[in-house]
Design a protein that fits this description.
about 170 residues; 11 helices; about 0% strand; mainly alpha
Amino acid sequence: MNWNEVSRTKDLETVRNAAAELDVNERDDRGRTPLMLFLTHRMPVEAIEVLLNAGADLEAEDRLGDTALKKAVKFKQKEAIRKLLEAGAKLNSPGGILATAWNAARGNKEIADMLLGTAGAVRLTLTPQEQEVVDDILYEESGKDMCDKIRRLDSPVLLHAVVNGYN
């Protein structure tokens, strides 16, 4: 029995047996831990809980620099993200905001907003009023008026939305 095989079973009893017999922080040739394999193979959140309870390292990075939290984001596993956050997965990265799970989630506003505790993160889901302000700026035909409106923004959320919308 090895973690790659276990991660493909979807069988909770097999996971429990493996967690009791194998190293839950073992690495494969790509530097992935069992927790990362479980996320990659979309194991049920209960299986992920077994690894967390057995002491899986939340901050281990694979050869791509991904942590378990970044893998959960990549595979859009919201329940797994919640479990990892509850277990203490760190939101910040020594590599700065570009190396965080929040940055990886920017294409999915709901998931990115789950990770708002990340230093430098901004809320990506806009209220209807905020969206109206952003639209007003983005659809302004006068470059001078657009710049004036941008200068008056006092919210990083709105500024970020304008920049993202413009690009």
